[in-house]
C-alpha cells in the first residue's frame, strides 16, 4: 500500500524516467489545445470584436499583450517554486524545469514589452515611460537574462542550480512589483488590471471572452514548451554523463 502511494505521488515525477514517460504522453494534448485556443482567440479578438470607443483598433493588441505579460510574471513564479523544491529536496528535475522555463519566460517578457510599447505609443504619445510597472517589468526581463547567463557560465550543474535558485528568489521581488505595481503606486501611465475580481475594472465582455481564450492558449503553450524543454534538458544531462564516463574509461 505504501509503495503504491509513493509511486502515484507528485514526488514520483522527480524521477527523470517517469517524468519523460508522462510528458511524452501528455505533450500532444497541450500542443493541440494550445494551438486551437490561440488560433480561435486571436482570430476572434482581432477580426470579430469592435473597435474601442476611446482606443480604436489599438485596443486589440490586448490579446497578445495581456496573456504574454501574465505568463512572463507567472513563469518566474513557476521557476521560484521549482527552485525552492531544488533547495529543499534536491530533485534535479525541478532544477532543470526552472532552467527550461527561463527562455520561455524571457520570450513572454519581450513580447509583453514590445506589444506594450506599440499599445502605449498612440495612447500615451511615447513608446516608453519610466512608469513603476514598466520599469519593474524591464528589470524582470534583465533578471531573466541574468538567470540564463548564470546557468551557462557555471560548469558544475548542482552549483549552477544553487546559485540560480538564489537569483530566482531575489528576482521574485520584481515579479511581484510587476504584478502589483499599479496597486502600490497610484501615479504612472499604465492602466489598471484588465482582468479583476472587481467587475468595474474588467474590460467589456465583448473583449473579455476572447481574451480568456487567448490567455488559456498562452498558459497551455507555456506548459507544453516547459515540458518539452525539460525533457530536452534531462536528455542533454544524460548525454553529458555518458560522455564523461567514456572519457574516464578511456
Automatic annotation (TrEMBL):
The keyword Zinc-finger does not apply. The gene is ccmC. The keyword Transit peptide does not apply. It holds the Pfam family Cytochrom_C_asm. It is a multi-pass membrane protein. Belongs to the CcmC/CycZ/HelC family. Coiled coil: none annotated. GO terms for cellular component: plasma membrane. Keywords: Cell inner membrane, Cell membrane, Cytochrome c-type biogenesis, Membrane, Transmembrane, Transmembrane helix, Transport. This is Heme exporter protein C. Residues 16-190 form the Cytochrome c assembly protein domain. It comes from Sedimentitalea arenosa. InterPro entries: Cyt_c_assembly, Cyt_c_biogenesis_CcmC, Cyt_c_biogenesis_CcsA/CcmC.
Amino acid at each position: 500500500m505504501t509503495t503504491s502511494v509513493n509511486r502515484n505521488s507528485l514526488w514520483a515525477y522527480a524521477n527523470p524516467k517517469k517524468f519523460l514517460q508522462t510528458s511524452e504522453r501528455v505533450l500532444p494534448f497541450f500542443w493541440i489545445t494550445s494551438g486551437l485556443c490561440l488560433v480561435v482567440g486571436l482570430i476572434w479578438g482581432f477580426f470579430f470584436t469592435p473597435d474601442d470607443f476611446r482606443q480604436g483598433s489599438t485596443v486589440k493588441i490586448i490579446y497578445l499583450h495581456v496573456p504574454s505579460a501574465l505568463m512572463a510574471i507567472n513563469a518566474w513564479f513557476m521557476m521560484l517554486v521549482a527552485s525552492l523544491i531544488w533547495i529543499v529536496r534536491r530533485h534535479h528535475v525541478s532544477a532543470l524545469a526552472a532552467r527550461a522555463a527561463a527562455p520561455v519566460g524571457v520570450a513572454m517578457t519581450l513580447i509583453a514589452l514590445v506589444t506594450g510599447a506599440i499599445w502605449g505609443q498612440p495612447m500615451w504619445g511615447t513608446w516608453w515611460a519610466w512608469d513603476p510597472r514598466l520599469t519593474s517589468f524591464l528589470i524582470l526581463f534583465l533578471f531573466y537574462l541574468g538567470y540564463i547567463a548564470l546557468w551557462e557560465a557555471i560548469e558544475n550543474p548542482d552549483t549552477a542550480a544553487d546559485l540560480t535558485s538564489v537569483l530566482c528568489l531575489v528576482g521574485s521581488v520584481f515579479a511581484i512589483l510587476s504584478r502589483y505595481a499599479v496597486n502600490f503606486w497610484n501615479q504612472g501611465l499604465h492602466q489598471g488590471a484588465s482582468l479583476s475580481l472587481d467587475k468595474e475594472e474588467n474590460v467589456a465582455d465583448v473583449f473579455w471572452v476572447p481574451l480568456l481564450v487567448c490567455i488559456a492558449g498562452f498558459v497551455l503553450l507555456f506548459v507544453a514548451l516547459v515540458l518539452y524543454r525539460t525533457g530536452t534538458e534531462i536528455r542533454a544531462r544524460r548525454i553529458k554523463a555518458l560522455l564523461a564516463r567514456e572519457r574516464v574509461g578511456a
